[in-house]
């Protein structure tokens, strides 16, 4: 169970397939751009986030390569990058992971992504049925974990053959970088119990998240293991609840019914992900019933695959909702917002003080101690607070 008296571990998201201010519109959109990703990473490194999730998929930049670039431009930020069993051998992934952990000085986190699109997996040469992918992944990580923890592995399995494999250089973290994973099917949860350190769920209502947590605990207990828990959410935080809901409405104000229908058709046709089906079931493609739990808004999932819900409200309101998740065992949040650079600032400046996260790191003092207020940035500087105010 998460320690609710401890602040959440709060990560941000690098939007490697592009970013924008309006869902379903090209207005004020930002294409995939490595320079922009560096801006976001450097901002969240300074703003007090512990790490970033780098997504994976055919529309995304390759996560290991991008993480290596961002590690060179940041100081403390950790990088949650994807291992996709079947797209490369476990020995090759072990070399990638060890090297990235070494060049980043121990800032690597690993995210197992087995895949929820049979069409995309076929393009990668993976043709296994849904549940069998987890049997394959189990053998994959028998080899991967043995290599990265001990430097050697041997397996003559049904899916993986690795004969006397070796890893020459160990990672910085011991025994290895932490392993994260998200999957909602029974096969995924059974797999998770024997492998992972942290289970991730998409942002479902608290009672549904509590059911998942209980099932993962049971799966881990069968292996004599303990697992911690995180949640993947978008955030729309403003100074008042009213302003936050206005911002949520604005985010989908240029999203047409035709675009929604097209997106939902793609999800239904190309995805066999149980988690994706659970996201769709929250709204069923309808834009008139999007608050699926207090302050949990499913508007993003009308057009975005994967994580499709946002917490919407003032800092106090969102803090209360996050406390509900903490009370059922969540200790980590992987957050995002549109556009990702600006929303990273809003979450840090508005929400972090409310939930006990320190905020910006290594700030240089801006005065000799006299309290001042922002004076508009003119050449005269800031304004001293009037006496008695």
From TrEMBL:
Pfam families: Bac_luciferase (PF00296)
Group of enzyme by EC: oxidoreductase
Known catalytic reactions: an alkanesulfonate + FMNH2 + O2 = an aldehyde + FMN + sulfite + H2O + 2 H(+)
Keyword Oxidoreductase: yes
Keywords: Flavoprotein, FMN, Monooxygenase, Oxidoreductase
Biological process according to GO: alkanesulfonate catabolic process
Enzyme Commission code(s) on record: 1.14.14.5
SUPFAM superfamilies: Bacterial luciferase-like
CDD domains listed in its UniProt record: Alkanesulfonate_monoxygenase
Gene Ontology MF terms in the entry: alkanesulfonate monooxygenase activity
Highest taxon of source: Bacteria
Domain Luciferase-like: 10-331
HAMAP family, sorted: Alkanesulf_monooxygen (MF_01229)
UniProt record similarity statement: Belongs to the SsuD family.
Primary role: Catalyzes the desulfonation of aliphatic sulfonates.
Name assigned to this protein: Alkanesulfonate monooxygenase
